[in-house]
Amino acid sequence: MSESKLELLDVKKAFGEVEAVKGVTMTLRKGEFLSLLGPSGCGKSTTLSMIAGLEAPSAGDIRVDGQSVVTVPPQRRRIGLVFQDYAVFSRLSVRSNLAFGLEAQGFPRAERRRRVADIAERLELDKILDRRASRLNMSEMQRVALARVLVTEPQLLLLDEPMSNLDAALRFALRGELKRIQRALGQSVLYVTHDQLEAISMSDRIAVMRLGELQQIASPQEIFSKPVNRFVAEFIGDPPINLIDCRVTRDGARAIAETALHGTLDFGPIEIEEGQHLLGVRPHSLRLTHKPGPNGAETEVKVVENLGAEHVAHVAYGNALVAVTLPPRQVSVGERLHLHLDPSEIHLIEQGSERVVAHSLAKAER
Ligand code: ATP
Q: Which of 19, 35, 46 is the pocket-test mutation for ligand 1 (most atoms within 8 Å of CB)?
Protein backbone atom coordinates (compact mmCIF):
# COMPACT_ATOMS: atom_id res chain seq x y z
CA MET A 1 0.00 0.00 0.00
CA SER A 2 1.49 3.33 -1.01
CA GLU A 3 1.99 6.14 1.46
CA SER A 4 -0.79 8.61 2.07
CA LYS A 5 -0.33 12.27 1.20
CA LEU A 6 -3.65 13.51 2.55
CA GLU A 7 -6.02 12.01 5.08
CA LEU A 8 -9.50 13.20 6.01
CA LEU A 9 -10.75 11.68 9.24
CA ASP A 10 -14.48 12.05 9.93
CA VAL A 11 -14.41 15.64 8.67
CA LYS A 12 -17.60 17.65 9.15
CA LYS A 13 -18.67 21.15 8.26
CA ALA A 14 -21.93 22.84 9.21
CA PHE A 15 -22.99 26.33 8.13
CA GLY A 16 -25.68 27.02 10.74
CA GLU A 17 -28.42 24.48 10.00
CA VAL A 18 -26.83 23.29 6.76
CA GLU A 19 -24.61 20.23 7.16
CA ALA A 20 -22.46 20.67 4.06
CA VAL A 21 -20.03 17.83 4.88
CA LYS A 22 -21.22 15.00 7.14
CA GLY A 23 -18.21 13.04 8.33
CA VAL A 24 -15.97 12.30 5.36
CA THR A 25 -13.09 9.86 5.81
CA MET A 26 -10.75 9.28 2.89
CA THR A 27 -7.11 9.06 1.87
CA LEU A 28 -5.23 10.44 -1.11
CA ARG A 29 -2.05 8.49 -1.84
CA LYS A 30 1.28 10.05 -2.80
CA GLY A 31 1.39 10.83 -6.51
CA GLU A 32 -2.27 9.93 -6.93
CA PHE A 33 -4.84 11.74 -9.08
CA LEU A 34 -8.03 11.55 -7.04
CA SER A 35 -11.30 13.12 -8.18
CA LEU A 36 -14.02 14.30 -5.87
CA LEU A 37 -17.14 13.78 -7.98
CA GLY A 38 -20.75 14.66 -7.24
CA PRO A 39 -23.69 16.87 -8.19
CA SER A 40 -23.88 20.56 -7.36
CA GLY A 41 -24.28 21.19 -3.63
CA CYS A 42 -22.92 17.81 -2.46
CA GLY A 43 -20.09 19.43 -0.49
CA LYS A 44 -17.12 19.12 -2.87
CA SER A 45 -15.99 22.75 -2.71
CA THR A 46 -16.47 22.91 1.05
CA THR A 47 -14.25 19.83 1.42
CA LEU A 48 -11.62 21.43 -0.80
CA SER A 49 -11.78 24.71 1.14
CA MET A 50 -11.19 22.87 4.41
CA ILE A 51 -8.15 21.08 2.98
CA ALA A 52 -6.77 24.40 1.69
CA GLY A 53 -7.46 26.06 5.04
CA LEU A 54 -10.00 28.57 3.73
CA GLU A 55 -12.69 27.04 5.97
CA ALA A 56 -12.22 25.41 9.38
CA PRO A 57 -13.87 22.00 9.88
CA SER A 58 -16.60 21.80 12.54
CA ALA A 59 -15.17 18.39 13.56
CA GLY A 60 -12.63 15.80 12.46
CA ASP A 61 -9.00 15.99 11.40
CA ILE A 62 -7.14 16.73 8.16
CA ARG A 63 -3.58 15.41 7.85
CA VAL A 64 -0.93 16.09 5.24
CA ASP A 65 2.01 13.66 5.35
CA GLY A 66 0.65 12.33 8.63
CA GLN A 67 0.61 15.76 10.35
CA SER A 68 -2.60 17.50 11.33
CA VAL A 69 -3.00 20.80 9.47
CA VAL A 70 -6.30 22.06 10.89
CA THR A 71 -4.58 24.76 12.94
CA VAL A 72 -2.01 25.60 10.23
CA PRO A 73 -2.85 28.84 8.34
CA PRO A 74 -3.50 28.40 4.58
CA GLN A 75 -0.29 30.08 3.40
CA ARG A 76 1.79 27.65 5.46
CA ARG A 77 0.07 24.46 4.25
CA ARG A 78 2.01 24.30 0.96
CA ILE A 79 -1.15 23.45 -0.93
CA GLY A 80 -1.61 24.78 -4.47
CA LEU A 81 -5.08 25.83 -5.61
CA VAL A 82 -6.33 26.26 -9.17
CA PHE A 83 -9.87 27.54 -9.70
CA GLN A 84 -12.28 27.62 -12.62
CA ASP A 85 -11.19 31.03 -13.92
CA TYR A 86 -7.46 30.12 -13.77
CA ALA A 87 -6.81 33.58 -12.18
CA VAL A 88 -3.94 34.34 -14.56
CA PHE A 89 -2.97 38.05 -14.67
CA SER A 90 -3.73 38.91 -18.29
CA ARG A 91 -1.67 42.15 -18.34
CA LEU A 92 1.48 40.44 -17.12
CA SER A 93 3.89 38.28 -19.09
CA VAL A 94 4.01 34.52 -18.59
CA ARG A 95 7.31 35.00 -16.73
CA SER A 96 5.82 37.56 -14.30
CA ASN A 97 2.80 35.34 -13.74
CA LEU A 98 5.05 32.42 -12.83
CA ALA A 99 7.26 34.52 -10.55
CA PHE A 100 4.34 36.23 -8.81
CA GLY A 101 3.74 33.68 -6.04
CA LEU A 102 7.45 33.31 -5.36
CA GLU A 103 7.89 37.04 -5.05
CA ALA A 104 4.95 37.24 -2.66
CA GLN A 105 6.57 34.52 -0.56
CA GLY A 106 9.88 36.47 -0.51
CA PHE A 107 12.05 34.03 -2.48
CA PRO A 108 15.42 35.58 -3.50
CA ARG A 109 15.80 36.59 -7.15
CA ALA A 110 18.19 33.79 -8.15
CA GLU A 111 15.92 31.10 -6.70
CA ARG A 112 12.90 32.66 -8.44
CA ARG A 113 14.71 32.57 -11.76
CA ARG A 114 15.82 28.97 -11.31
CA ARG A 115 12.35 27.75 -10.39
CA VAL A 116 10.58 29.70 -13.15
CA ALA A 117 13.01 28.39 -15.78
CA ASP A 118 12.61 24.83 -14.50
CA ILE A 119 8.80 24.73 -14.42
CA ALA A 120 8.56 26.62 -17.75
CA GLU A 121 10.66 23.94 -19.39
CA ARG A 122 8.68 21.08 -17.86
CA LEU A 123 5.36 22.56 -18.95
CA GLU A 124 6.69 23.70 -22.35
CA LEU A 125 6.26 27.38 -21.63
CA ASP A 126 9.94 28.27 -22.05
CA LYS A 127 9.48 29.66 -25.58
CA ILE A 128 6.69 32.01 -24.55
CA LEU A 129 7.95 33.38 -21.24
CA ASP A 130 7.84 36.96 -22.53
CA ARG A 131 4.37 36.71 -24.06
CA ARG A 132 1.55 38.64 -22.42
CA ALA A 133 -0.97 36.34 -20.78
CA SER A 134 -3.82 38.05 -22.66
CA ARG A 135 -2.38 36.61 -25.90
CA LEU A 136 -2.29 32.96 -24.81
CA ASN A 137 -4.48 30.21 -26.21
CA MET A 138 -6.42 28.04 -23.75
CA SER A 139 -3.87 25.24 -23.65
CA GLU A 140 -1.12 27.75 -22.81
CA MET A 141 -3.42 29.44 -20.30
CA GLN A 142 -4.06 26.16 -18.48
CA ARG A 143 -0.34 25.42 -18.37
CA VAL A 144 0.41 28.91 -17.02
CA ALA A 145 -2.29 28.52 -14.35
CA LEU A 146 -0.78 25.18 -13.33
CA ALA A 147 2.83 26.40 -13.58
CA ARG A 148 2.27 29.45 -11.37
CA VAL A 149 1.02 27.13 -8.64
CA LEU A 150 3.50 24.28 -9.25
CA VAL A 151 6.42 26.73 -9.13
CA THR A 152 5.78 27.11 -5.38
CA GLU A 153 6.37 23.32 -5.12
CA PRO A 154 3.09 22.47 -3.38
CA GLN A 155 2.83 19.14 -1.55
CA LEU A 156 -0.67 18.81 -2.88
CA LEU A 157 -2.46 20.39 -5.83
CA LEU A 158 -6.18 21.12 -5.51
CA LEU A 159 -8.14 21.83 -8.67
CA ASP A 160 -11.73 23.10 -8.41
CA GLU A 161 -13.69 22.52 -11.65
CA PRO A 162 -10.91 24.09 -13.73
CA MET A 163 -12.48 23.21 -17.08
CA SER A 164 -16.16 23.88 -16.51
CA ASN A 165 -16.20 27.07 -18.64
CA LEU A 166 -14.65 25.44 -21.70
CA ASP A 167 -16.18 23.75 -24.72
CA ALA A 168 -16.08 19.97 -25.18
CA ALA A 169 -13.24 19.78 -27.73
CA LEU A 170 -10.96 21.93 -25.61
CA ARG A 171 -11.81 19.99 -22.46
CA PHE A 172 -10.82 16.78 -24.22
CA ALA A 173 -7.43 18.22 -25.21
CA LEU A 174 -6.76 19.78 -21.81
CA ARG A 175 -7.70 16.61 -19.92
CA GLY A 176 -4.97 14.69 -21.73
CA GLU A 177 -2.47 17.45 -21.13
CA LEU A 178 -3.25 17.81 -17.43
CA LYS A 179 -2.92 14.06 -16.91
CA ARG A 180 0.42 14.02 -18.76
CA ILE A 181 1.80 16.84 -16.60
CA GLN A 182 0.55 15.24 -13.37
CA ARG A 183 2.18 11.89 -14.29
CA ALA A 184 5.45 13.47 -15.36
CA LEU A 185 5.77 15.43 -12.11
CA GLY A 186 4.37 12.67 -9.86
CA GLN A 187 2.19 15.41 -8.35
CA SER A 188 -0.50 14.46 -5.82
CA VAL A 189 -3.76 15.96 -7.11
CA LEU A 190 -7.28 16.33 -5.75
CA TYR A 191 -9.59 17.31 -8.61
CA VAL A 192 -13.12 18.54 -7.92
CA THR A 193 -15.70 18.03 -10.64
CA HIS A 194 -19.37 17.28 -11.29
CA ASP A 195 -18.42 15.86 -14.72
CA GLN A 196 -18.17 12.06 -14.66
CA LEU A 197 -16.24 12.00 -17.94
CA GLU A 198 -13.47 14.19 -16.49
CA ALA A 199 -13.28 12.05 -13.37
CA ILE A 200 -13.26 8.74 -15.28
CA SER A 201 -10.72 9.84 -17.90
CA MET A 202 -8.08 11.31 -15.59
CA SER A 203 -8.33 9.73 -12.16
CA ASP A 204 -6.50 6.89 -10.49
CA ARG A 205 -9.44 6.78 -8.08
CA ILE A 206 -12.76 8.59 -7.78
CA ALA A 207 -14.49 9.61 -4.54
CA VAL A 208 -18.23 9.99 -5.21
CA MET A 209 -20.09 12.38 -2.89
CA ARG A 210 -23.78 12.98 -2.32
CA LEU A 211 -25.49 15.30 0.18
CA GLY A 212 -22.27 15.81 2.14
CA GLU A 213 -21.48 12.10 2.40
CA LEU A 214 -18.88 9.97 0.69
CA GLN A 215 -20.61 7.17 -1.23
CA GLN A 216 -17.72 5.20 -2.70
CA ILE A 217 -14.01 5.62 -3.32
CA ALA A 218 -12.46 3.30 -5.92
CA SER A 219 -10.85 3.11 -9.37
CA PRO A 220 -12.98 4.38 -12.29
CA GLN A 221 -13.39 0.78 -13.51
CA GLU A 222 -14.62 -0.44 -10.14
CA ILE A 223 -16.98 2.50 -9.68
CA PHE A 224 -18.43 1.68 -13.10
CA SER A 225 -18.68 -2.09 -12.78
CA LYS A 226 -19.30 -2.43 -9.01
CA PRO A 227 -21.25 0.63 -7.84
CA VAL A 228 -22.16 0.35 -4.15
CA ASN A 229 -25.60 1.90 -4.46
CA ARG A 230 -28.24 3.23 -6.85
CA PHE A 231 -26.92 6.80 -6.69
CA VAL A 232 -23.40 5.81 -7.82
CA ALA A 233 -24.82 3.42 -10.44
CA GLU A 234 -26.96 6.21 -11.93
CA PHE A 235 -24.41 9.01 -11.61
CA ILE A 236 -21.73 7.16 -13.60
CA GLY A 237 -22.25 5.92 -17.16
CA ASP A 238 -23.56 7.44 -20.35
CA PRO A 239 -26.21 6.55 -21.48
CA PRO A 240 -27.31 6.00 -17.87
CA ILE A 241 -27.86 2.56 -16.39
CA ASN A 242 -31.30 0.97 -16.95
CA LEU A 243 -33.36 0.34 -13.84
CA ILE A 244 -35.73 -2.60 -14.31
CA ASP A 245 -38.47 -3.58 -11.86
CA CYS A 246 -38.25 -7.09 -10.44
CA ARG A 247 -39.89 -9.14 -7.71
CA VAL A 248 -37.61 -11.15 -5.45
CA THR A 249 -38.74 -14.38 -3.82
CA ARG A 250 -36.61 -16.73 -1.74
CA ASP A 251 -35.99 -20.34 -2.60
CA GLY A 252 -34.33 -21.49 0.60
CA ALA A 253 -31.16 -19.39 0.86
CA ARG A 254 -31.31 -18.31 -2.79
CA ALA A 255 -32.75 -14.99 -3.99
CA ILE A 256 -34.72 -15.35 -7.22
CA ALA A 257 -35.71 -12.21 -9.16
CA GLU A 258 -38.74 -12.38 -11.41
CA THR A 259 -38.64 -10.04 -14.41
CA ALA A 260 -41.17 -8.96 -17.03
CA LEU A 261 -39.11 -10.31 -19.93
CA HIS A 262 -36.35 -12.69 -18.82
CA GLY A 263 -38.37 -14.89 -16.47
CA THR A 264 -36.58 -15.70 -13.22
CA LEU A 265 -32.95 -14.84 -12.50
CA ASP A 266 -31.06 -16.68 -9.75
CA PHE A 267 -28.76 -14.44 -7.67
CA GLY A 268 -27.78 -17.26 -5.33
CA PRO A 269 -27.41 -17.02 -1.55
CA ILE A 270 -27.49 -13.26 -0.92
CA GLU A 271 -29.24 -11.24 1.77
CA ILE A 272 -32.33 -9.43 0.55
CA GLU A 273 -35.95 -9.38 1.68
CA GLU A 274 -38.68 -10.76 -0.56
CA GLY A 275 -40.59 -8.06 -2.49
CA GLN A 276 -40.19 -5.41 -5.17
CA HIS A 277 -36.59 -4.41 -5.99
CA LEU A 278 -34.65 -3.11 -9.01
CA LEU A 279 -32.19 -4.53 -11.48
CA GLY A 280 -29.51 -2.18 -12.78
CA VAL A 281 -28.25 -3.09 -16.25
CA ARG A 282 -25.97 -0.86 -18.30
CA PRO A 283 -26.94 -0.21 -21.95
CA HIS A 284 -23.48 -1.50 -22.91
CA SER A 285 -24.12 -4.82 -21.11
CA LEU A 286 -27.17 -5.64 -23.27
CA ARG A 287 -27.18 -7.21 -26.73
CA LEU A 288 -29.80 -7.47 -29.46
CA THR A 289 -29.77 -10.41 -31.90
CA HIS A 290 -32.03 -11.75 -34.62
CA LYS A 291 -31.79 -15.33 -33.34
CA PRO A 292 -32.74 -16.62 -29.88
CA GLY A 293 -29.96 -17.70 -27.50
CA PRO A 294 -29.00 -18.03 -23.83
CA ASN A 295 -30.33 -15.30 -21.51
CA GLY A 296 -32.34 -13.90 -24.43
CA ALA A 297 -35.99 -12.88 -24.69
CA GLU A 298 -38.05 -11.43 -27.53
CA THR A 299 -38.80 -7.71 -27.56
CA GLU A 300 -39.69 -4.89 -29.94
CA VAL A 301 -37.58 -1.86 -30.87
CA LYS A 302 -39.58 1.26 -30.04
CA VAL A 303 -37.09 4.12 -30.60
CA VAL A 304 -33.59 4.40 -32.10
CA GLU A 305 -31.38 7.31 -31.05
CA ASN A 306 -28.43 8.25 -33.22
CA LEU A 307 -25.37 9.27 -31.19
CA GLY A 308 -23.04 9.31 -34.18
CA ALA A 309 -20.43 6.68 -33.28
CA GLU A 310 -23.12 4.45 -31.75
CA HIS A 311 -26.86 4.10 -31.66
CA VAL A 312 -29.12 3.57 -28.66
CA ALA A 313 -32.16 1.34 -29.19
CA HIS A 314 -34.99 1.64 -26.69
CA VAL A 315 -36.79 -1.69 -26.50
CA ALA A 316 -39.91 -2.85 -24.68
CA TYR A 317 -39.43 -4.45 -21.27
CA GLY A 318 -42.85 -5.19 -19.81
CA ASN A 319 -44.52 -1.78 -19.61
CA ALA A 320 -41.18 0.06 -19.62
CA LEU A 321 -38.35 0.68 -22.07
CA VAL A 322 -34.69 -0.21 -21.69
CA ALA A 323 -31.76 1.31 -23.59
CA VAL A 324 -29.26 -0.83 -25.50
CA THR A 325 -26.13 0.58 -27.15
CA LEU A 326 -25.10 -0.89 -30.47
CA PRO A 327 -23.13 -0.02 -33.62
CA PRO A 328 -24.97 2.30 -36.07
CA ARG A 329 -27.63 1.09 -38.51
CA GLN A 330 -28.16 -2.42 -37.10
CA VAL A 331 -31.79 -2.21 -36.01
CA SER A 332 -34.93 -0.28 -36.94
CA VAL A 333 -38.06 0.78 -35.13
CA GLY A 334 -40.75 -1.95 -35.07
CA GLU A 335 -38.28 -4.83 -35.46
CA ARG A 336 -38.75 -7.84 -33.19
CA LEU A 337 -35.41 -9.00 -31.79
CA HIS A 338 -33.93 -10.96 -28.89
CA LEU A 339 -32.59 -9.02 -25.94
CA HIS A 340 -29.70 -10.72 -24.10
CA LEU A 341 -28.56 -10.04 -20.56
CA ASP A 342 -24.92 -10.48 -19.59
CA PRO A 343 -25.18 -12.58 -16.39
CA SER A 344 -21.93 -11.12 -15.03
CA GLU A 345 -23.21 -7.54 -15.32
CA ILE A 346 -26.58 -7.38 -13.54
CA HIS A 347 -26.83 -5.32 -10.36
CA LEU A 348 -29.56 -6.12 -7.86
CA ILE A 349 -30.57 -2.94 -6.02
CA GLU A 350 -32.42 -3.25 -2.72
CA GLN A 351 -35.52 -1.07 -2.58
CA GLY A 352 -35.44 1.27 0.42
CA SER A 353 -31.73 1.20 1.30
CA GLU A 354 -30.85 1.51 -2.42
CA ARG A 355 -27.73 -0.59 -1.80
CA VAL A 356 -26.45 -2.84 -4.59
CA VAL A 357 -26.56 -6.30 -3.02
CA ALA A 358 -25.30 -8.32 -6.03
CA HIS A 359 -23.36 -7.44 -9.19
CA SER A 360 -24.00 -10.66 -11.12
CA LEU A 361 -26.18 -13.74 -11.23
CA ALA A 362 -25.22 -16.89 -9.31
CA LYS A 363 -22.35 -18.84 -10.93
CA ALA A 364 -24.58 -21.67 -12.15
CA GLU A 365 -26.57 -19.16 -14.21
CA ARG A 366 -23.52 -17.83 -16.02
P1 ATP B 1 -21.03 23.36 -6.42
O2 ATP B 1 -20.38 22.54 -7.46
O3 ATP B 1 -22.38 23.90 -6.83
O4 ATP B 1 -20.15 24.40 -5.78
P5 ATP B 1 -20.44 21.65 -4.21
O6 ATP B 1 -20.62 20.17 -4.32
O7 ATP B 1 -19.07 22.18 -4.30
O8 ATP B 1 -21.40 22.36 -5.23
P9 ATP B 1 -20.62 23.10 -1.78
O10 ATP B 1 -20.38 24.41 -2.48
O11 ATP B 1 -19.53 22.56 -0.95
O12 ATP B 1 -21.09 22.02 -2.82
O13 ATP B 1 -21.93 23.27 -0.88
C14 ATP B 1 -22.45 22.25 -0.03
C15 ATP B 1 -23.66 22.78 0.72
O16 ATP B 1 -23.25 23.77 1.66
C17 ATP B 1 -24.70 23.47 -0.16
O18 ATP B 1 -25.97 23.18 0.37
C19 ATP B 1 -24.37 24.94 -0.01
O20 ATP B 1 -25.52 25.73 -0.20
C21 ATP B 1 -23.88 25.00 1.44
N22 ATP B 1 -22.88 26.06 1.66
C23 ATP B 1 -21.65 26.14 1.09
N24 ATP B 1 -20.99 27.23 1.55
C25 ATP B 1 -21.82 27.86 2.42
C26 ATP B 1 -21.71 29.05 3.24
N27 ATP B 1 -20.60 29.79 3.25
N28 ATP B 1 -22.77 29.35 4.01
C29 ATP B 1 -23.90 28.58 4.03
N30 ATP B 1 -24.05 27.48 3.29
C31 ATP B 1 -23.03 27.10 2.50
A: 46
Q: How, if at all, do strands 356-358 and 242-251 pair?
A: unpaired
Of 283, 280, 281, 236, residue with least CA distance to 39: 236
In this prediction, residues 81-107 reach a mean pLDDT of 86
User: Which atom of ligand 1 is nearest the CA belonging to 45?
Assistant: 7
Least confident window among 29-38, 144-153, 302-311, 351-360: 144-153
Q: Can you list the alpha helix ranges (DSSP code H) found in the chain?
A: 44-52, 94-104, 109-122, 138-150, 168-185, 196-202, 220-225, 230-235
Instruction: Tell how far the Cα of 51 is from the centroid of ligand 1, in angstroms.
Output: 15
**Residue with more model confidence, 253 or 28:** 28
Query: How many beta carbons lie within 10 A of that of residue 289, not counting itself?
Result: 11
Ligand 1 pocket: which of 13, 22, 45 to mutate (most atoms within 8 A of CB)? 45
pTM equals 0.90
Residues with CB under 6 A from ligand 1: 15, 18, 20, 38, 40-46, 194
- The Cα-based distances of 145 to 53, 181, 225 in angstroms read 20, 13, 35
